[in-house]
Specification:
The complex is a heterodimer of chains A (301) and B (295). In chain A, strand 1 and strand 2 form a beta hairpin. Chain A has a single domain, classed as MetI-like (MetI-like fold). The longest helix of chain A has 36 residues. Chain A has 14 helices and 2 strands. A two-stranded antiparallel ribbon of chain A has the order 1-2. Chain B has 295 residues and is an all-alpha fold. Chain B has 2 domains: 69 residues, no CATH class; 210 residues, MetI-like fold (Orthogonal Bundle). Chain B has 15 helices and no strands. The chains are: A mainly alpha (301), B mainly alpha (295). Chains A and B meet through helix 1, helix 3, helix 4, helix 5 and helix 6 of A and helix 1, helix 4, helix 5, helix 6 and helix 11 of B.
Chain lengths: 301, 295
Protein backbone atom coordinates (compact mmCIF):
# COMPACT_ATOMS: atom_id res chain seq x y z
CA UNK A 1 0.00 0.00 0.00
CA UNK A 2 2.95 2.31 0.66
CA UNK A 3 4.03 1.85 -2.93
CA UNK A 4 0.57 2.33 -4.33
CA UNK A 5 1.11 5.92 -5.49
CA UNK A 6 4.36 5.06 -7.21
CA UNK A 7 2.68 2.02 -8.70
CA UNK A 8 -0.22 4.10 -9.97
CA UNK A 9 2.22 6.51 -11.59
CA UNK A 10 3.97 3.63 -13.31
CA UNK A 11 0.66 2.23 -14.52
CA UNK A 12 -0.39 5.59 -15.92
CA UNK A 13 2.94 5.96 -17.69
CA UNK A 14 2.63 2.51 -19.25
CA UNK A 15 -0.89 3.15 -20.52
CA UNK A 16 0.23 6.53 -21.81
CA UNK A 17 2.91 4.89 -23.96
CA UNK A 18 0.55 2.35 -25.46
CA UNK A 19 -2.29 4.86 -25.83
CA UNK A 20 -1.77 5.38 -29.58
CA UNK A 21 -2.69 1.77 -30.17
CA UNK A 22 -5.58 1.89 -27.68
CA UNK A 23 -7.04 5.03 -29.28
CA UNK A 24 -6.57 3.59 -32.76
CA UNK A 25 -8.19 0.35 -31.67
CA UNK A 26 -11.22 2.15 -30.26
CA UNK A 27 -11.61 4.46 -33.26
CA UNK A 28 -10.75 2.23 -36.20
CA UNK A 29 -11.60 -1.26 -34.97
CA UNK A 30 -13.87 -1.38 -31.93
CA UNK A 31 -16.23 1.40 -33.02
CA UNK A 32 -16.64 0.15 -36.61
CA UNK A 33 -17.15 -3.39 -35.31
CA UNK A 34 -19.81 -2.27 -32.86
CA UNK A 35 -21.48 -0.23 -35.59
CA UNK A 36 -21.44 -3.12 -38.02
CA UNK A 37 -22.86 -5.44 -35.35
CA UNK A 38 -25.74 -3.00 -34.84
CA UNK A 39 -26.25 -2.49 -38.59
CA UNK A 40 -26.36 -6.24 -39.08
CA UNK A 41 -29.77 -6.16 -37.37
CA UNK A 42 -31.03 -3.25 -39.45
CA UNK A 43 -32.10 -2.32 -42.92
CA UNK A 44 -29.73 0.49 -43.86
CA UNK A 45 -29.97 1.80 -47.43
CA UNK A 46 -27.49 4.64 -46.62
CA UNK A 47 -29.74 7.43 -47.92
CA UNK A 48 -32.00 6.90 -44.90
CA UNK A 49 -31.01 5.91 -41.39
CA UNK A 50 -30.86 2.31 -40.20
CA UNK A 51 -34.17 0.63 -39.32
CA UNK A 52 -34.19 -2.28 -36.88
CA UNK A 53 -35.28 -5.52 -38.56
CA UNK A 54 -34.00 -8.03 -35.99
CA UNK A 55 -32.67 -11.17 -37.61
CA UNK A 56 -33.90 -10.21 -41.08
CA UNK A 57 -30.45 -9.96 -42.65
CA UNK A 58 -29.36 -13.19 -41.02
CA UNK A 59 -32.44 -14.95 -42.41
CA UNK A 60 -31.76 -13.48 -45.82
CA UNK A 61 -28.26 -14.95 -45.76
CA UNK A 62 -29.85 -18.39 -45.37
CA UNK A 63 -31.74 -18.04 -48.65
CA UNK A 64 -29.41 -15.82 -50.74
CA UNK A 65 -28.19 -18.22 -53.40
CA UNK A 66 -25.68 -15.82 -54.93
CA UNK A 67 -24.11 -15.46 -51.50
CA UNK A 68 -24.14 -19.23 -50.93
CA UNK A 69 -22.30 -19.73 -54.21
CA UNK A 70 -19.77 -17.08 -53.18
CA UNK A 71 -19.17 -18.78 -49.82
CA UNK A 72 -18.85 -22.16 -51.45
CA UNK A 73 -16.38 -20.78 -53.97
CA UNK A 74 -14.37 -19.21 -51.14
CA UNK A 75 -14.38 -22.51 -49.26
CA UNK A 76 -13.15 -24.36 -52.34
CA UNK A 77 -10.47 -21.78 -52.83
CA UNK A 78 -9.26 -22.20 -49.23
CA UNK A 79 -9.47 -26.01 -49.37
CA UNK A 80 -7.39 -26.13 -52.55
CA UNK A 81 -5.03 -23.23 -51.91
CA UNK A 82 -3.92 -23.94 -48.32
CA UNK A 83 -2.57 -27.49 -48.82
CA UNK A 84 -1.06 -26.81 -52.25
CA UNK A 85 0.61 -23.61 -51.10
CA UNK A 86 1.91 -25.21 -47.90
CA UNK A 87 3.30 -28.24 -49.73
CA UNK A 88 4.92 -26.12 -52.44
CA UNK A 89 6.46 -23.71 -49.93
CA UNK A 90 7.82 -26.58 -47.84
CA UNK A 91 9.33 -28.33 -50.87
CA UNK A 92 10.99 -25.15 -52.13
CA UNK A 93 12.26 -24.34 -48.64
CA UNK A 94 13.62 -27.88 -48.24
CA UNK A 95 15.45 -27.59 -51.57
CA UNK A 96 16.92 -24.24 -50.56
CA UNK A 97 17.99 -25.80 -47.27
CA UNK A 98 20.24 -28.26 -49.16
CA UNK A 99 23.16 -25.84 -48.75
CA UNK A 100 22.93 -24.80 -52.40
CA UNK A 101 25.23 -22.27 -54.02
CA UNK A 102 23.49 -19.07 -55.17
CA UNK A 103 20.77 -19.80 -52.61
CA UNK A 104 20.26 -16.04 -52.26
CA UNK A 105 19.34 -15.78 -55.92
CA UNK A 106 16.82 -18.62 -55.80
CA UNK A 107 15.32 -17.21 -52.63
CA UNK A 108 14.99 -13.75 -54.19
CA UNK A 109 13.42 -15.25 -57.34
CA UNK A 110 10.67 -16.82 -55.26
CA UNK A 111 10.28 -13.82 -52.92
CA UNK A 112 10.10 -11.02 -55.52
CA UNK A 113 6.58 -11.85 -56.79
CA UNK A 114 5.22 -11.29 -53.25
CA UNK A 115 6.12 -7.61 -53.65
CA UNK A 116 4.02 -7.16 -56.77
CA UNK A 117 0.80 -5.24 -56.08
CA UNK A 118 -2.36 -7.31 -56.52
CA UNK A 119 -3.52 -4.95 -59.26
CA UNK A 120 -0.21 -5.42 -61.07
CA UNK A 121 -0.29 -9.15 -60.51
CA UNK A 122 -3.79 -9.34 -61.97
CA UNK A 123 -2.63 -7.33 -65.00
CA UNK A 124 0.40 -9.53 -65.62
CA UNK A 125 -1.65 -12.70 -65.41
CA UNK A 126 -4.37 -11.26 -67.58
CA UNK A 127 -1.65 -11.18 -70.21
CA UNK A 128 0.02 -14.50 -69.30
CA UNK A 129 -3.36 -16.29 -69.39
CA UNK A 130 -4.66 -14.56 -72.51
CA UNK A 131 -6.33 -17.26 -74.60
CA UNK A 132 -4.74 -16.27 -77.91
CA UNK A 133 -1.38 -14.64 -77.25
CA UNK A 134 -0.72 -15.51 -73.61
CA UNK A 135 2.65 -17.04 -72.83
CA UNK A 136 1.03 -20.02 -71.10
CA UNK A 137 -1.12 -21.04 -74.04
CA UNK A 138 1.74 -20.37 -76.44
CA UNK A 139 3.88 -22.74 -74.41
CA UNK A 140 1.14 -25.37 -74.32
CA UNK A 141 0.78 -25.01 -78.07
CA UNK A 142 4.53 -25.35 -78.65
CA UNK A 143 4.75 -28.42 -76.44
CA UNK A 144 1.54 -30.29 -77.24
CA UNK A 145 0.08 -28.56 -80.29
CA UNK A 146 1.19 -31.45 -82.53
CA UNK A 147 -1.07 -33.76 -80.50
CA UNK A 148 -4.00 -31.40 -80.89
CA UNK A 149 -3.84 -30.24 -77.28
CA UNK A 150 -4.39 -26.51 -76.82
CA UNK A 151 -4.66 -24.38 -73.68
CA UNK A 152 -8.11 -23.30 -72.51
CA UNK A 153 -9.37 -19.75 -72.70
CA UNK A 154 -8.49 -19.40 -69.02
CA UNK A 155 -10.22 -16.22 -67.94
CA UNK A 156 -13.14 -16.29 -70.34
CA UNK A 157 -14.18 -19.78 -69.38
CA UNK A 158 -15.83 -20.04 -65.97
CA UNK A 159 -14.53 -23.60 -65.50
CA UNK A 160 -10.96 -22.34 -65.62
CA UNK A 161 -11.49 -19.31 -63.37
CA UNK A 162 -10.60 -21.15 -60.16
CA UNK A 163 -7.41 -22.77 -61.53
CA UNK A 164 -6.38 -19.35 -62.83
CA UNK A 165 -6.89 -17.66 -59.47
CA UNK A 166 -5.08 -20.48 -57.69
CA UNK A 167 -2.16 -20.16 -60.08
CA UNK A 168 -1.94 -16.41 -59.46
CA UNK A 169 -2.13 -16.89 -55.69
CA UNK A 170 0.56 -19.57 -55.76
CA UNK A 171 2.82 -17.13 -57.53
CA UNK A 172 3.17 -15.19 -54.28
CA UNK A 173 3.98 -17.85 -51.69
CA UNK A 174 7.54 -16.52 -51.36
CA UNK A 175 7.06 -15.06 -47.92
CA UNK A 176 6.09 -18.49 -46.62
CA UNK A 177 9.10 -20.08 -48.28
CA UNK A 178 11.39 -17.68 -46.43
CA UNK A 179 9.69 -18.42 -43.12
CA UNK A 180 9.87 -22.19 -43.64
CA UNK A 181 13.51 -21.98 -44.70
CA UNK A 182 14.38 -20.18 -41.49
CA UNK A 183 12.46 -22.79 -39.50
CA UNK A 184 14.26 -25.65 -41.27
CA UNK A 185 17.61 -24.09 -40.41
CA UNK A 186 16.67 -24.25 -36.72
CA UNK A 187 16.18 -28.01 -36.77
CA UNK A 188 19.22 -29.38 -34.87
CA UNK A 189 21.64 -31.32 -37.08
CA UNK A 190 22.25 -33.86 -34.29
CA UNK A 191 18.63 -35.02 -34.52
CA UNK A 192 18.88 -35.60 -38.25
CA UNK A 193 22.23 -37.36 -37.85
CA UNK A 194 20.77 -39.60 -35.16
CA UNK A 195 17.94 -40.44 -37.54
CA UNK A 196 20.42 -41.30 -40.27
CA UNK A 197 22.31 -43.58 -37.86
CA UNK A 198 19.03 -45.33 -37.10
CA UNK A 199 18.83 -46.11 -40.79
CA UNK A 200 16.21 -43.54 -41.78
CA UNK A 201 16.31 -42.34 -45.38
CA UNK A 202 16.00 -38.64 -46.21
CA UNK A 203 12.24 -38.88 -46.82
CA UNK A 204 11.54 -40.59 -43.50
CA UNK A 205 13.82 -38.12 -41.71
CA UNK A 206 11.80 -35.30 -43.23
CA UNK A 207 8.45 -36.72 -42.13
CA UNK A 208 9.52 -38.13 -38.75
CA UNK A 209 11.97 -35.49 -37.54
CA UNK A 210 11.88 -32.27 -39.55
CA UNK A 211 8.13 -31.94 -39.94
CA UNK A 212 7.29 -32.41 -36.22
CA UNK A 213 10.07 -29.96 -35.29
CA UNK A 214 8.68 -27.18 -37.47
CA UNK A 215 5.01 -27.98 -36.89
CA UNK A 216 4.31 -24.83 -34.80
CA UNK A 217 5.52 -22.67 -37.70
CA UNK A 218 3.36 -24.66 -40.12
CA UNK A 219 0.31 -24.22 -37.90
CA UNK A 220 0.88 -20.46 -37.68
CA UNK A 221 1.24 -20.20 -41.46
CA UNK A 222 -1.81 -22.33 -42.17
CA UNK A 223 -3.91 -20.14 -39.90
CA UNK A 224 -2.59 -17.02 -41.62
CA UNK A 225 -3.39 -18.55 -45.02
CA UNK A 226 -6.86 -19.47 -43.84
CA UNK A 227 -7.61 -15.94 -42.62
CA UNK A 228 -6.28 -14.53 -45.91
CA UNK A 229 -8.19 -17.03 -48.07
CA UNK A 230 -11.50 -16.01 -46.52
CA UNK A 231 -10.82 -12.41 -47.55
CA UNK A 232 -9.64 -13.01 -51.13
CA UNK A 233 -10.89 -10.10 -53.19
CA UNK A 234 -8.56 -7.89 -55.23
CA UNK A 235 -7.37 -10.36 -57.86
CA UNK A 236 -10.78 -11.82 -58.76
CA UNK A 237 -12.22 -8.28 -58.65
CA UNK A 238 -9.72 -6.92 -61.17
CA UNK A 239 -9.84 -10.04 -63.33
CA UNK A 240 -13.61 -10.22 -63.58
CA UNK A 241 -13.82 -6.49 -64.33
CA UNK A 242 -11.26 -7.02 -67.08
CA UNK A 243 -12.96 -9.99 -68.74
CA UNK A 244 -16.44 -8.74 -69.58
CA UNK A 245 -17.33 -11.76 -71.70
CA UNK A 246 -17.03 -14.00 -68.68
CA UNK A 247 -19.74 -15.18 -66.29
CA UNK A 248 -19.12 -12.65 -63.50
CA UNK A 249 -20.11 -15.17 -60.84
CA UNK A 250 -17.15 -17.39 -61.68
CA UNK A 251 -14.96 -14.93 -59.75
CA UNK A 252 -17.41 -13.96 -57.05
CA UNK A 253 -16.09 -14.57 -53.51
CA UNK A 254 -17.21 -13.92 -49.94
CA UNK A 255 -15.65 -10.47 -49.80
CA UNK A 256 -16.84 -9.61 -53.33
CA UNK A 257 -20.38 -10.05 -52.10
CA UNK A 258 -19.73 -7.87 -49.02
CA UNK A 259 -18.15 -5.19 -51.17
CA UNK A 260 -21.04 -5.14 -53.62
CA UNK A 261 -23.70 -5.00 -50.93
CA UNK A 262 -21.96 -2.22 -49.02
CA UNK A 263 -20.70 0.00 -51.82
CA UNK A 264 -22.66 -0.89 -54.94
CA UNK A 265 -26.15 -1.82 -53.76
CA UNK A 266 -26.13 0.47 -50.70
CA UNK A 267 -27.25 -2.33 -48.40
CA UNK A 268 -25.05 -1.59 -45.44
CA UNK A 269 -27.20 -3.65 -43.07
CA UNK A 270 -26.95 -6.80 -45.12
CA UNK A 271 -23.25 -6.23 -45.82
CA UNK A 272 -22.64 -5.86 -42.06
CA UNK A 273 -24.36 -9.15 -41.33
CA UNK A 274 -22.10 -10.78 -43.92
CA UNK A 275 -19.09 -9.10 -42.35
CA UNK A 276 -19.96 -10.51 -38.94
CA UNK A 277 -20.49 -13.93 -40.43
CA UNK A 278 -17.00 -13.69 -41.91
CA UNK A 279 -15.58 -12.68 -38.54
CA UNK A 280 -17.37 -15.54 -36.75
CA UNK A 281 -16.19 -18.06 -39.34
CA UNK A 282 -12.63 -16.77 -39.05
CA UNK A 283 -12.62 -17.01 -35.26
CA UNK A 284 -14.37 -20.37 -35.28
CA UNK A 285 -11.99 -21.95 -37.77
CA UNK A 286 -8.97 -20.57 -35.92
CA UNK A 287 -10.21 -22.03 -32.65
CA UNK A 288 -10.92 -25.39 -34.30
CA UNK A 289 -7.45 -25.44 -35.87
CA UNK A 290 -5.77 -24.72 -32.56
CA UNK A 291 -7.79 -27.43 -30.82
CA UNK A 292 -7.31 -30.00 -33.57
CA UNK A 293 -3.60 -29.35 -33.75
CA UNK A 294 -2.92 -29.96 -30.05
CA UNK A 295 -1.86 -33.52 -30.76
CA UNK A 296 -0.19 -32.82 -34.09
CA UNK A 297 1.92 -29.83 -33.19
CA UNK A 298 5.09 -30.29 -31.25
CA UNK A 299 6.23 -27.40 -29.07
CA UNK A 300 9.78 -27.44 -27.85
CA UNK A 301 10.02 -27.02 -24.11
CA UNK B 1 37.24 -44.79 -46.06
CA UNK B 2 39.51 -47.13 -48.00
CA UNK B 3 37.79 -50.17 -46.55
CA UNK B 4 34.46 -49.24 -48.03
CA UNK B 5 35.86 -47.65 -51.17
CA UNK B 6 33.23 -49.00 -53.55
CA UNK B 7 30.28 -47.88 -51.49
CA UNK B 8 31.75 -44.38 -51.17
CA UNK B 9 31.94 -44.14 -54.93
CA UNK B 10 28.27 -45.11 -55.11
CA UNK B 11 27.60 -42.57 -52.38
CA UNK B 12 29.42 -39.83 -54.25
CA UNK B 13 27.57 -40.70 -57.43
CA UNK B 14 24.26 -40.72 -55.62
CA UNK B 15 25.25 -37.42 -54.05
CA UNK B 16 25.99 -36.01 -57.49
CA UNK B 17 22.68 -37.18 -58.90
CA UNK B 18 20.76 -35.64 -56.04
CA UNK B 19 22.75 -32.38 -56.35
CA UNK B 20 21.86 -32.19 -60.03
CA UNK B 21 18.22 -32.88 -59.18
CA UNK B 22 18.18 -30.18 -56.50
CA UNK B 23 19.74 -27.56 -58.78
CA UNK B 24 17.62 -28.60 -61.74
CA UNK B 25 14.41 -28.24 -59.75
CA UNK B 26 15.51 -24.91 -58.29
CA UNK B 27 16.33 -23.51 -61.72
CA UNK B 28 12.92 -24.57 -63.03
CA UNK B 29 11.25 -22.97 -60.00
CA UNK B 30 13.22 -19.73 -60.30
CA UNK B 31 12.44 -19.45 -64.02
CA UNK B 32 8.74 -20.13 -63.39
CA UNK B 33 8.50 -17.47 -60.67
CA UNK B 34 10.45 -14.84 -62.60
CA UNK B 35 8.99 -15.48 -66.05
CA UNK B 36 5.79 -13.42 -65.61
CA UNK B 37 7.88 -10.38 -64.65
CA UNK B 38 10.40 -10.96 -67.43
CA UNK B 39 7.56 -11.36 -69.93
CA UNK B 40 5.92 -8.17 -68.64
CA UNK B 41 9.08 -6.15 -69.24
CA UNK B 42 9.69 -7.87 -72.58
CA UNK B 43 6.19 -7.07 -73.79
CA UNK B 44 6.64 -3.44 -72.79
CA UNK B 45 9.59 -3.23 -75.20
CA UNK B 46 7.63 -4.34 -78.24
CA UNK B 47 5.30 -2.63 -80.67
CA UNK B 48 1.58 -3.35 -80.37
CA UNK B 49 1.38 -5.75 -83.34
CA UNK B 50 4.53 -7.50 -82.18
CA UNK B 51 3.15 -7.98 -78.68
CA UNK B 52 0.04 -9.72 -79.99
CA UNK B 53 1.92 -12.19 -82.07
CA UNK B 54 2.76 -15.75 -81.12
CA UNK B 55 6.43 -15.60 -80.35
CA UNK B 56 8.71 -16.58 -77.50
CA UNK B 57 11.17 -13.89 -78.41
CA UNK B 58 11.96 -11.59 -75.50
CA UNK B 59 13.14 -8.77 -77.74
CA UNK B 60 11.49 -7.02 -80.67
CA UNK B 61 12.85 -7.33 -84.21
CA UNK B 62 15.33 -5.86 -84.72
CA UNK B 63 16.47 -6.03 -81.06
CA UNK B 64 17.84 -2.50 -81.32
CA UNK B 65 14.23 -1.27 -81.64
CA UNK B 66 13.74 -2.14 -77.96
CA UNK B 67 15.02 1.27 -76.84
CA UNK B 68 12.89 3.37 -79.16
CA UNK B 69 9.83 1.17 -78.46
CA UNK B 70 10.43 1.58 -74.73
CA UNK B 71 10.71 5.36 -75.01
CA UNK B 72 7.49 5.50 -77.00
CA UNK B 73 5.50 3.04 -74.84
CA UNK B 74 6.51 4.44 -71.49
CA UNK B 75 5.98 8.05 -72.53
CA UNK B 76 2.57 7.10 -73.98
CA UNK B 77 1.60 5.65 -70.61
CA UNK B 78 3.09 8.51 -68.61
CA UNK B 79 1.40 11.19 -70.74
CA UNK B 80 -1.98 9.51 -71.12
CA UNK B 81 -4.53 12.35 -71.00
CA UNK B 82 -7.25 10.51 -69.06
CA UNK B 83 -5.32 8.15 -66.79
CA UNK B 84 -2.82 10.46 -65.17
CA UNK B 85 -0.01 8.36 -63.79
CA UNK B 86 2.15 11.33 -62.68
CA UNK B 87 -0.72 12.48 -60.47
CA UNK B 88 -1.28 8.96 -59.09
CA UNK B 89 2.41 8.69 -58.35
CA UNK B 90 2.22 11.95 -56.40
CA UNK B 91 -0.82 10.74 -54.45
CA UNK B 92 0.81 7.40 -53.71
CA UNK B 93 3.99 9.10 -52.51
CA UNK B 94 2.05 11.48 -50.24
CA UNK B 95 0.11 8.62 -48.66
CA UNK B 96 3.18 6.40 -48.45
CA UNK B 97 5.50 8.95 -46.83
CA UNK B 98 3.00 10.21 -44.24
CA UNK B 99 1.82 6.75 -43.47
CA UNK B 100 5.32 5.26 -43.19
CA UNK B 101 6.40 8.00 -40.77
CA UNK B 102 3.23 7.57 -38.71
CA UNK B 103 3.36 3.80 -38.63
CA UNK B 104 7.03 3.53 -37.72
CA UNK B 105 6.91 6.17 -34.99
CA UNK B 106 3.65 5.10 -33.38
CA UNK B 107 4.47 1.39 -33.49
CA UNK B 108 7.85 2.07 -31.89
CA UNK B 109 6.25 4.12 -29.11
CA UNK B 110 3.68 1.45 -28.34
CA UNK B 111 6.27 -1.31 -28.56
CA UNK B 112 8.43 0.61 -26.06
CA UNK B 113 5.54 0.67 -23.61
CA UNK B 114 5.20 -3.09 -23.90
CA UNK B 115 8.90 -3.95 -23.94
CA UNK B 116 10.56 -1.61 -21.43
CA UNK B 117 8.02 -0.43 -18.85
CA UNK B 118 6.38 -2.28 -15.97
CA UNK B 119 2.70 -1.64 -15.41
CA UNK B 120 -0.40 -3.51 -14.40
CA UNK B 121 -2.46 -4.96 -17.24
CA UNK B 122 0.48 -5.08 -19.63
CA UNK B 123 0.44 -8.82 -20.29
CA UNK B 124 -3.30 -9.01 -20.78
CA UNK B 125 -3.37 -6.00 -23.09
CA UNK B 126 -0.51 -7.38 -25.16
CA UNK B 127 -2.32 -10.69 -25.65
CA UNK B 128 -5.36 -8.68 -26.69
CA UNK B 129 -3.30 -6.68 -29.20
CA UNK B 130 -2.13 -9.92 -30.78
CA UNK B 131 -5.65 -11.29 -30.92
CA UNK B 132 -6.88 -8.25 -32.88
CA UNK B 133 -4.59 -9.27 -35.73
CA UNK B 134 -7.20 -11.88 -36.62
CA UNK B 135 -9.95 -9.36 -37.34
CA UNK B 136 -10.46 -9.20 -41.11
CA UNK B 137 -10.38 -5.71 -42.62
CA UNK B 138 -13.55 -6.35 -44.67
CA UNK B 139 -15.44 -6.64 -41.37
CA UNK B 140 -14.84 -2.97 -40.57
CA UNK B 141 -14.65 -1.46 -44.05
CA UNK B 142 -18.32 -0.49 -44.31
CA UNK B 143 -18.64 1.40 -41.02
CA UNK B 144 -15.18 2.90 -41.50
CA UNK B 145 -16.35 4.40 -44.76
CA UNK B 146 -19.42 5.83 -42.99
CA UNK B 147 -17.28 7.23 -40.15
CA UNK B 148 -14.87 8.85 -42.56
CA UNK B 149 -17.62 10.33 -44.68
CA UNK B 150 -19.31 11.74 -41.56
CA UNK B 151 -16.17 13.63 -40.55
CA UNK B 152 -15.67 14.77 -44.14
CA UNK B 153 -12.56 12.75 -44.94
CA UNK B 154 -13.99 11.05 -48.01
CA UNK B 155 -12.72 13.15 -50.87
CA UNK B 156 -9.30 13.51 -49.24
CA UNK B 157 -6.36 11.16 -48.79
CA UNK B 158 -6.72 11.20 -44.98
CA UNK B 159 -8.48 7.81 -44.58
CA UNK B 160 -5.38 6.16 -45.99
CA UNK B 161 -2.73 7.74 -43.80
CA UNK B 162 -4.21 9.06 -40.55
CA UNK B 163 -4.93 5.57 -39.13
CA UNK B 164 -1.25 4.74 -39.64
CA UNK B 165 -0.42 7.10 -36.76
CA UNK B 166 -2.15 4.72 -34.34
CA UNK B 167 0.25 1.77 -34.64
CA UNK B 168 -0.48 -1.70 -35.93
CA UNK B 169 -0.51 -4.93 -33.95
CA UNK B 170 1.92 -6.80 -36.15
CA UNK B 171 4.52 -4.03 -36.16
CA UNK B 172 4.15 -3.51 -32.42
CA UNK B 173 4.78 -7.21 -31.95
CA UNK B 174 7.86 -7.19 -34.15
CA UNK B 175 9.42 -4.11 -32.57
CA UNK B 176 8.67 -5.32 -29.06
CA UNK B 177 10.61 -8.51 -29.78
CA UNK B 178 13.52 -6.40 -30.98
CA UNK B 179 13.43 -3.93 -28.08
CA UNK B 180 13.39 -6.75 -25.54
CA UNK B 181 16.75 -7.89 -26.90
CA UNK B 182 18.40 -4.60 -25.89
CA UNK B 183 20.06 -4.88 -22.45
CA UNK B 184 17.90 -3.40 -19.67
CA UNK B 185 20.97 -2.05 -17.87
CA UNK B 186 21.11 0.73 -20.46
CA UNK B 187 17.71 2.02 -19.31
CA UNK B 188 18.65 1.84 -15.66
CA UNK B 189 21.93 3.68 -16.19
CA UNK B 190 20.12 6.39 -18.11
CA UNK B 191 17.41 6.62 -15.46
CA UNK B 192 20.03 7.14 -12.75
CA UNK B 193 21.45 9.92 -14.90
CA UNK B 194 18.02 11.55 -14.74
CA UNK B 195 16.69 10.48 -18.14
CA UNK B 196 12.89 10.40 -18.52
CA UNK B 197 11.24 7.47 -20.26
CA UNK B 198 10.95 9.58 -23.43
CA UNK B 199 14.69 10.27 -23.20
CA UNK B 200 15.42 6.56 -22.89
CA UNK B 201 13.21 5.84 -25.89
CA UNK B 202 14.56 8.59 -28.08
CA UNK B 203 18.24 8.54 -27.12
CA UNK B 204 18.84 4.85 -26.43
CA UNK B 205 16.22 2.55 -27.92
CA UNK B 206 15.60 4.32 -31.23
CA UNK B 207 19.28 4.70 -32.21
CA UNK B 208 19.94 1.04 -31.32
CA UNK B 209 16.92 -0.19 -33.28
CA UNK B 210 17.50 1.47 -36.62
CA UNK B 211 17.57 -1.82 -38.58
CA UNK B 212 14.30 -3.02 -37.07
CA UNK B 213 12.65 0.36 -37.60
CA UNK B 214 13.86 0.37 -41.20
CA UNK B 215 12.23 -3.02 -41.72
CA UNK B 216 8.90 -1.80 -40.35
CA UNK B 217 9.13 1.27 -42.57
CA UNK B 218 9.93 -0.84 -45.63
CA UNK B 219 7.15 -3.33 -45.05
CA UNK B 220 4.68 -0.56 -44.53
CA UNK B 221 5.87 1.20 -47.66
CA UNK B 222 5.32 -1.97 -49.67
CA UNK B 223 1.91 -2.43 -48.05
CA UNK B 224 0.79 1.12 -48.89
CA UNK B 225 2.15 0.96 -52.42
CA UNK B 226 0.30 -2.29 -53.08
CA UNK B 227 -2.93 -1.70 -51.16
CA UNK B 228 -5.95 -2.03 -53.41
CA UNK B 229 -9.05 -2.44 -51.25
CA UNK B 230 -8.38 0.63 -49.05
CA UNK B 231 -8.01 3.10 -51.93
CA UNK B 232 -10.86 1.41 -53.81
CA UNK B 233 -13.23 2.12 -50.93
CA UNK B 234 -12.02 5.47 -49.61
CA UNK B 235 -11.00 7.29 -52.80
CA UNK B 236 -13.86 8.11 -55.09
CA UNK B 237 -12.44 10.87 -57.29
CA UNK B 238 -10.05 9.90 -60.04
CA UNK B 239 -7.85 12.85 -59.08
CA UNK B 240 -7.03 11.10 -55.79
CA UNK B 241 -6.30 7.66 -57.18
CA UNK B 242 -3.17 5.76 -56.23
CA UNK B 243 -1.03 3.91 -58.74
CA UNK B 244 -2.66 0.56 -57.96
CA UNK B 245 -6.10 1.99 -58.73
CA UNK B 246 -4.76 3.91 -61.72
CA UNK B 247 -3.43 0.73 -63.22
CA UNK B 248 -6.84 -0.87 -63.05
CA UNK B 249 -8.44 2.27 -64.48
CA UNK B 250 -5.95 2.21 -67.34
CA UNK B 251 -6.82 -1.37 -68.13
CA UNK B 252 -10.56 -0.84 -68.05
CA UNK B 253 -10.82 2.57 -69.69
CA UNK B 254 -11.15 1.61 -73.35
CA UNK B 255 -11.02 -2.17 -73.35
CA UNK B 256 -8.78 -1.80 -76.37
CA UNK B 257 -5.54 -0.78 -74.66
CA UNK B 258 -2.76 -2.69 -76.42
CA UNK B 259 -0.79 -5.18 -74.35
CA UNK B 260 2.55 -3.46 -74.80
CA UNK B 261 1.18 -0.29 -73.16
CA UNK B 262 -0.58 -2.23 -70.39
CA UNK B 263 2.65 -4.00 -69.56
CA UNK B 264 4.58 -0.73 -69.63
CA UNK B 265 2.07 0.69 -67.14
CA UNK B 266 2.37 -2.42 -64.96
CA UNK B 267 6.15 -2.14 -65.04
CA UNK B 268 5.94 1.50 -63.97
CA UNK B 269 3.77 0.58 -60.99
CA UNK B 270 5.75 -2.49 -59.94
CA UNK B 271 9.33 -1.35 -60.54
CA UNK B 272 9.72 1.10 -57.59
CA UNK B 273 8.83 -1.56 -55.02
CA UNK B 274 11.24 -4.02 -56.59
CA UNK B 275 14.03 -1.44 -56.56
CA UNK B 276 13.39 -0.65 -52.90
CA UNK B 277 13.42 -4.36 -52.15
CA UNK B 278 16.65 -5.05 -53.99
CA UNK B 279 18.32 -2.19 -52.12
CA UNK B 280 17.24 -3.59 -48.77
CA UNK B 281 17.07 -7.28 -49.57
CA UNK B 282 19.19 -8.71 -46.80
CA UNK B 283 17.47 -6.93 -43.94
CA UNK B 284 14.00 -7.68 -45.27
CA UNK B 285 14.41 -11.39 -45.80
CA UNK B 286 16.03 -11.82 -42.40
CA UNK B 287 13.20 -10.06 -40.60
CA UNK B 288 10.47 -12.05 -42.36
CA UNK B 289 12.26 -15.16 -41.23
CA UNK B 290 12.53 -14.25 -37.55
CA UNK B 291 9.03 -12.81 -37.15
CA UNK B 292 7.53 -15.82 -38.84
CA UNK B 293 9.23 -18.18 -36.44
CA UNK B 294 8.44 -16.30 -33.28
CA UNK B 295 4.88 -15.80 -34.43
Amino acid sequence: MIHSRAQLKKDLLGWLWVSPWVIGFLAFLAAPMAMSLYYSFTDYPLLEGPVWIGLGNWQRMLTDEVFHAAILRTAWYAILFIPIATAMALVIAALLNEKVKAGGFFQAAVFIPTLVPMAGSAMIWLWMLNGEYGLINQSIHAAFGWAGIEGPNWLQNSKWAMPSILMISLWSIGQMVVVYLAALKEVPDELLEAGALDGMGPIRRFFNITLPMISPVILFNIITLMIGSLQVFAIPYVLSAATPGNDPRAMYFFTSSMYDNAFRYNQMGYASAQAWLQLLITLGLTAIMFAASKKLVHYRA
Amino acid sequence: MAREGSSTVVGVRRGLVSRVLVYGTLVVIAVTFLMPLVWMVATSLKTAPEASRSTFSLLPTPPSAAVSNAVKNYSDVWNDPTVRFPLYLRNTLIIASLSVIGMTLSSAIVAFGFARLEWRGKKALFAFVLATMMIPFPVVMGPMFLLFSQIGWIGSLKPLWVPAFFANAFNVFMLRQFFMGIPKELDEAARIDGCSSWGIFWRIIVPLSKPALAVVALFHFVFVWNDFLGPLIFLNHQDQFTLALGLQLYQSKAGQTPWNLLMAASTLVIAPVLVVFLLAQGALVKSVATTGIKG
